[in-house]
């Protein structure tokens, strides 16, 4: 099935390796399918590790010249890349929806808002300031220089096939690093389209390569190749842990954005309608497949029934279908495994006393569609309270008071996003400070933007993306002790 693109040259079947568009040496390919019905919408090469090494060598060769450009030159190229992404947002959205399944409006939203990371870091390139510190001894000065870490490897997931790339490539290239990106094999077409636009923007050969192929051998090569200085990864905690272990040999720099298990708390003083709207956005956006999704919804006892009723009414109104159909607000899940996981969470919750208020099963639309689901009377003992569901399942757990809900919310090895709705200012400050999470949304269900530091604590990751802090992971500090002058 072909996508109706205004610029068909954005849909490519080759990988970008050191400025060359290449197929696999042995002709091996990966089919890219529409999760709606499994139709093949494109193919990409399944490259061998030999070709990956060429990309790494090219990135290593290109890095000094890229770093030697003035910050303003790098900024101008990044700015052109941003402009091209915005100008081609409609086509990029069609490609994204085609391979990932999310509604077209959400796809376009992802592209436009995450292009902001390229724009922001184009600006930040010019603000990589060092320091001059008074010397410890007479006649000495302490200089602090910020220098690029070098060649970076990026591994990105399928849930935000476009946005997870710009938030890594933006700061890396701004800092003077080069990057080799391995996108998720389910969604490589968005990554390759971004690479086409990077080339058009004037990103030099070797500075940004996109390699498609098998995750494990590529991950292994990134972790052990001495030319790779840093690995930046967004994906599961399990794979993050593996990368950390494998990269230990070379003491590689790591940025990890891993799984979450976000608590979404509604206190009795909250604006209940606003809380329901926030929960809808946080829970059901991208069919529940975001790492900052509300995973556990805690509602104070006195407002629990009213909240559940309003949430069910809104969730019932979600429109399932192909992402390009007008009015559709929920697409299919990414694959069969994702459906099995939510089925397991539903079955476990119902077995242990959960009360099904909506959905709970595969949709009559077939494929990997799952009905928007709400379950009440959920407890901490259920799987859904412990694991990331990554699907449109809203479990409601009631709580007594602040201390009770903070203990419950923090009872997790994860600490990425968290949310709560309340009006009392004292409560807002206490709860925001007490939640063990890298991010707290207060009276909002949406957090991410390029001006804010995105990232997790505990087993949700290392480092931050976005904001002035987001470039630090791509810079090394060098101390120069200047004496005898
Ligand atoms: P998800 O559950 O979101 O698919 P994964 O962590 O499995 O999370 O995948 C995220 C990204 O990591 C994808 O690009 C995938 O191909 C890649 N990946 C999976 N396993 C490995 C591995 N062993 N080494 C490196 N990358 C991997």
State the gist of this model.
One of its GO terms (biological process) is gamma-aminobutyric acid catabolic process. With 485 residues, the protein is of the alpha/beta class. It is 38% helix and 21% strand.
Count the E strands.
Answer: 22
- Gap between N and C termini, in Å? 70 Å
Which ions, cofactors or small ligands are bound in this entry? Answer: adenosine-5'-diphosphate
Query: Average pLDDT, to the nearest integer?
Result: 98
Can you tell me the overall shape? globular
Biggest sheet, open or closed, and with what strands and sense?
7 strands, mixed
Rg, please?
Answer: 23 Å
Which structural class do you get from the secondary structure elements? alpha/beta
Beta fraction: 15-25%
Description:
Helix 3 (89-100) packs antiparallel against helix 6 (188-201) and helix 9 packs across helix 10 (301-316). The strands form six sheets. A seven-stranded mixed beta sheet has the order 14-15-16-13-12-18-19, with helices on both faces. 38% of the residues lie in helices and 21% in strands. The model has no long low-confidence stretch (mean pLDDT 98). It has 485 residues and is of the alpha/beta class. The chain binds adenosine-5'-diphosphate. Adenosine-5'-diphosphate (ADP) binds next to helix 7 and helix 8.
């Amino acid at each position: 099935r072909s996508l109706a693109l205004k610029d068909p040259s954005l849909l490519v079947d080759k990988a970008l390796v050191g400025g060359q568009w290449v197929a696999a040496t042995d002709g091996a390919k990966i089919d890219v399918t529409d999760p709606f019905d499994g139709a093949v919408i494109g193919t990409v090469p399944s490259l061998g590790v030999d070709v990956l090494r060429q990309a790494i060598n090219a990135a290593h060769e290109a890095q000094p010249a890229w770093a030697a450009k003035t910050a303003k030159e790098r900024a101008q190229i990044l700015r052109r890349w941003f402009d091209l992404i915005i100008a081609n947002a409609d086509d990029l959205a069609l490609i994204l929806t085609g391979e990932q399944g999310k509604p077209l409006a959400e796809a376009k939203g992802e592209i436009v808002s995450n292009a902001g990371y390229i724009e922001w870091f184009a600006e930040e390139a010019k603000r990589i300031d060092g320091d001059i510190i008074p010397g410890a001894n007479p006649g000495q000065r302490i200089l602090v220089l910020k220098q690029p870490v070098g060649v970076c490897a990026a591994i990105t997931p399928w849930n935000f096939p476009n946005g997870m790339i710009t938030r890594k490539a933006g700061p890396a290239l701004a800092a003077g690093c080069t990057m080799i990106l391995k996108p998720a094999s389910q969604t490589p077409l968005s990554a390759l389209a971004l690479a086409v636009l990077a080339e058009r923007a004037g990103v030099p050969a070797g500075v940004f390569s996109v390699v498609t192929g098998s995750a494990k051998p590529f991950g292994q090569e990134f972790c052990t190749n001495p030319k790779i200085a840093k690995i930046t990864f967004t994906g599961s905690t399990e794979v993050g842990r593996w990368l950390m272990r494998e990269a230990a040999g070379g003491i590689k720099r790591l940025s990890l954005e891993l799984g979450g298990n976000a608590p979404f708390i509604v206190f009795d003083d909250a604006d209940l309608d606003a809380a329901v709207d926030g929960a809808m956005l946080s829970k059901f956006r991208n069919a529940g497949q975001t790492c900052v999704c509300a995973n556990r919804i805690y509602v104070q006892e006195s407002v629990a029934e009213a909240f559940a009723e309003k949430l069910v009414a809104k969730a019932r109104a979600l429109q399932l279908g192909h992402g390009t159909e007008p009015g559709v607000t929920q697409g299919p899940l990414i694959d069969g495994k994702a459906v099995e996981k939510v089925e397991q969470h539903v079955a476990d919750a119902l077995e242990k006393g959960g009360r099904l208020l909506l959905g709970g099963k595969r949709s009559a639309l077939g494929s990997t569609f799952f009905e928007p689901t709400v379950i009440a009377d959920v407890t901490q003992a259920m799987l859904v309270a412990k694991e990331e569901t990554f699907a449109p399942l809203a479990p409601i757990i009631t709580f007594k008071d602040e201390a009770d809900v903070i203990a419950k919310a923090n009872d997790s090895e994860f600490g990425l996003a968290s949310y709560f709705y309340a009006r009392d200012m004292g409560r807002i400050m206490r709860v925001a400070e007490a939640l063990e999470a890298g991010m707290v949304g207060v009276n909002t269900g949406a957090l991410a933007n390029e001006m804010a530091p995105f990232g997790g604590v505990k087993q949700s990751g290392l480092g931050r993306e976005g904001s002035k802090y987001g470039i630090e992971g791509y810079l090394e500090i060098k101390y120069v002790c200047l004496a005898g002058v």
